[in-house]
Specification:
With about 270 residues, the protein is α/β, with parallel strands linked by helices. The protein has eight helices and nine strands. It has a domain of about 180 residues: 3-Layer(aba) Sandwich (UDP-N-acetylmuramoyl-L-alanine:D-glutamate ligase).
Length: about 270
């Protein structure tokens, strides 16, 4: 069985973070493992508290996994401080972790910040160059580059600039682009642009979409897909997950990680 590692924060509400990642890995038939970077008290309404784990225990989690089980791919999510970003970047290099997907998580769906201003620079300089694929949304791409993104052409320009940082593939997610009937993402490998389009789904239940999308790409890479194929399959998966999203809680509900997957309950019928 192929294996995938998530290096990210915990979401007590279960819709994002390592919980979303592990559910996605399971949906793709990949064995999931986690190195937790922070614990959040979080629900569909917002983030009520954040506790960063000490850097040494974050590194020790990664060391424990890589010295015994190993992994075929890894994704990073919430890395809230410069120290954590540096430690994770160094661990990726030290243990030669393959097929890295970086979701540069900065703000929760509720608007609560999940990445300090100082850490953004460290992500850009130390982590993004290690990535096979990076998956910023419009806000994250704007924050990394310091430029406005309002159109698909702007997304293409942003992808070109992000590629210069050193990653292999860039996916600029356009789900927040206003005025369209489609959710368009721009994938770029330094030579060619690929527009990934799906119908725009009107729902407030999109908590954890970024985590889910990036972990789906990591699962595809772990199973041997090339980056473009992994990105395309992840797009199909997240579209189904949003289409059948779950109205839980009083705020932004989660996506449905079992969309298109045979329900375990069916085995008991």
């Amino acid at each position: 069985m192929k294996k995938a590692l998530t290096i990210a924060g915990s979401d007590s509400g279960g819709g994002a973070g390592i919980q979303a990642d592990l559910k996605t890995f399971t949906a793709f038939g990949v064995y999931g493992m986690s190195a937790i970077t922070a614990i959040t008290a979080q629900n569909t309404i917002g983030v009520q508290g954040i506790f960063e784990l000490p850097v040494d225990i974050i590194v020790e989690q990664i060391r424990s996994i890589m010295s015994d089980i190993g992994t075929d791919a890894a994704k990073t999510g919430m890395l809230s401080s410069p120290e954590i970003v540096n430690a994770v970047s160094q661990s990726i290099k030290k243990f030669n972790i393959p097929n890295i997907v970086v979701d540069p998580v900065m703000v929760a769906k509720s608007g609560d910040p999940l990445l300090s201003e100082n850490a953004r620079t460290v992500v850009k300089e130390n982590l993004l160059p290690l990535a096979t694929v990076i998956t910023p949304n419009l806000f994250e791409a704007e924050a990394i580059l310091g430029q406005s993104i309002k159109t698909v052409d702007d997304m293409k320009s942003a992808a070109v600039e992000l590629k210069k940082i050193g990653c292999q593939w860039v996916v600029v997610k356009g789900g927040h682009l206003t005025g369209g009937k489609e959710a368009i993402d721009v994938a770029y490998n330094g030579n060619d642009f690929y527009l990934l389009s799906s119908p725009f789904i009107q729902t407030k239940n999109t908590h954890g979409t970024g985590c889910t999308f990036s972990s789906a790409i990591a699962a595809g890479l772990a199973k041997g897909s090339n980056p473009l194929h992994a990105i395309q399959k992840a797009k199909e998966y997240i579209s189904k997950a949003i289409e059948s999203s779950l109205s839980m809680g009083k705020g932004h509900g989660p996506t449905n990680h079992l969309a298109g997957v045979k329900s375990p309950w069916d085995y008991f019928q």
